[in-house]
């Protein structure tokens, strides 16, 4: 609004001035003595000539400025054009490399090098081509060069890390991951690599430090972070359990507070409390986890918590535990095991019969064989139940990457992944008749040896 008012005022002022000059005419005389030239103009003509001269000078100056900048603009345009062609060649080269068209990719990178002197994308494309051509020694040298450059340092470290991992050089791989973390704290692959390295070598304190240092900008969300921290604390507690039960209790309780469904954390905390004489705290920890995650390890630890208890006392504790989560079959299994140890065959049989009617597994069949052997020493029925165990579904067990373990471990022995062991049913192969006959022969031999 102000600009409109100002422009209108200026136009009005110019009109008024010209009107005044029109009513008050005057003259201007221009004399050039050297050439004896004299020109007489009216005042209006002189003003118009002056305005024309100013405009003419401005146009000439503008043309001169444009002409002075034209070479630079042309050069800049040529550079931009060459750069555009270079990036187009890189883009097409990456597509060709992705399609494993090595010849086309090599031709395009040659074109890109003519247009671009240096660029991180050129290094990336060249690495892809070298790997496609199978020249791994050349790729290694290229990765070292990339590691020493600012723009491609992380890419070079990543490539060197993967190379070391493929060659099972865990120490070198850890060094590359450590350098990457110094360059970029919280880099996901580097955090996971260092966590894997420290976990595989049972350096639990260092693994915890890596996890805590990268808790905010690391690769794990809060729930996953808490779980991994709980697993590491449990591993630390297991190591300290026998020699330093106070430290084991502290670490295991911290893990239990982070994730009360983590069975090993609960059992380790309870064992540490029991060693220190705090049986009430131990029972409370186990009961808390039992309500969330009923598990045989919880039941076994709970029933055998007091070392001086008799077999009947342990049977009573199993019944108490079953009442904490009566709808889950693990409580019934705890009663059956305790009843067998107490030689209460009738109770063990009656409880186990309900399990067999509901969801028979090899675990239930093996327990029934144990009852038949302990109560009646009936070889025929024992053999029958053992054969049933072959045909019934398998019971859950600790499994990580296809490896079955009797006890929980914090790290997979195959991949080094933290918290890889899960409680689940293993893959069950179908046995043919020949294998079943061989297994039955083994059962007969074991029973015969036992009787002798």
Describe the structure.
This protein is mainly α and 452 residues long. Helix content is 72%, strand content 5%. It contains 20 helices and five strands. Strands 4-3-5 form a three-stranded antiparallel sheet, with no helix packed on it. The chain has a two-stranded antiparallel ribbon with strand order 1-2. The radius of gyration is 43 Å and the shape is elongated. The C terminus is likely disordered.
Task: Give a quick set of tags describing it.
452 residues; three-stranded antiparallel sheet; two-stranded antiparallel sheet; mainly alpha; 72% helix; elongated
User: What is the straight-line distance between the termini?
Assistant: 114 Å
- Helix and strand pattern: HEEHHHHHHHHHHHHHHHHHHEEEH
Number of strands: 5
The fraction of residues in strands falls at: under 5%
The percentage helix is: over 70%
Structural classification? mainly alpha
The description of the largest β-sheet is:
3 strands, antiparallel
The total count of helices amounts to 20
Taking pLDDT < 50 over at least 5 consecutive residues as the criterion, the unreliable ranges are 430-452
Shape: elongated
Radius of gyration: 43 Å
Q: Output the strand order for the largest sheet.
A: 4-3-5
Summarize model confidence as the mean pLDDT: 86
């Amino acid at each position: 609004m102000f600009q409109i008012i100002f422009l209108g005022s200026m136009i009005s002022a110019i009109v008024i001035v010209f009107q005044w000059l029109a009513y008050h005419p005057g003259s201007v005389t221009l004399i050039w003595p050297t050439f004896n030239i004299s020109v007489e103009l009216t005042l209006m003509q002189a003003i118009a000539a002056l305005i024309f001269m100013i405009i003419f000078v401005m146009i000439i100056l503008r043309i001169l400025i444009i002409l002075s900048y034209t070479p630079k603009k042309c050069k800049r345009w040529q550079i931009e054009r060459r750069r555009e062609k270079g990036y187009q060649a890189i883009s097409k080269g990456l597509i060709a490399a992705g399609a494993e068209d090595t010849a086309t990719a090599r031709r395009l990178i040659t074109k890109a090098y003519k247009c671009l002197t240096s660029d991180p994308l050129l290094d990336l494309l060249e690495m892809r081509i070298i790997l496609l051509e199978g020249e791994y020694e050349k790729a290694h040298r290229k990765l070292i060069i990339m590691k020493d450059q600012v723009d491609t340092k992380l890419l070079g470290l990543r490539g060197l890390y993967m190379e070391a991992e493929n060659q099972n050089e865990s120490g070198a791989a850890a060094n590359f991951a450590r350098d990457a973390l110094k360059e970029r704290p919280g880099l996901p692959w580097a955090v996971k690599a260092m966590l894997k390295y420290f976990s595989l070598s049972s350096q639990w304190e260092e693994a915890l430090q890596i996890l805590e240092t990268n808790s905010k900008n690391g690769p794990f969300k809060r729930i996953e972070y808490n779980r991994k921290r709980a697993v590491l604390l449990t591993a630390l507690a297991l190591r300290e359990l026998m020699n330093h039960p106070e430290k084991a209790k502290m670490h295991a309780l911290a893990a239990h507070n982070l994730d009360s469904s983590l069975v090993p954390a609960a059992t380790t905390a309870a064992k540490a409390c029991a060693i220190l004489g705090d049986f009430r705290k131990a029972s409370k920890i186990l009961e808390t986890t039992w309500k969330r995650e009923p598990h045989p390890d919880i039941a076994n630890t709970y029933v055998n918590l007091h070392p001086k208890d008799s077999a009947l006392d342990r049977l009573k504790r199993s019944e108490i535990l079953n009442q904490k989560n009566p709808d889950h079959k693990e409580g019934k299994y705890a009663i059956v095991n305790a009843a067998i140890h107490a030689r209460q065959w009738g109770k063990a049989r009656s409880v186990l019969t309900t399990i067999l009617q509901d969801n028979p597994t090899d675990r239930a069949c093996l327990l029934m064989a144990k009852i038949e052997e302990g109560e009646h020493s009936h070889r025929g029925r024992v053999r029958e139940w053992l054969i049933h165990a072959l045909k019934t579904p398998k019971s859950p067990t600790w499994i990580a990457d296809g490896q079955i373990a009797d006890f929980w471990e914090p790290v997979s022995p195959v991949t080094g992944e933290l918290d890889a062991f899960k409680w689940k049913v293993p893959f069950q192969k179908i046995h043919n008749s020949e294998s079943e006959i061989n297994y039955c022969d083994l059962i007969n031999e074991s029973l015969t040896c036992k009787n002798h």
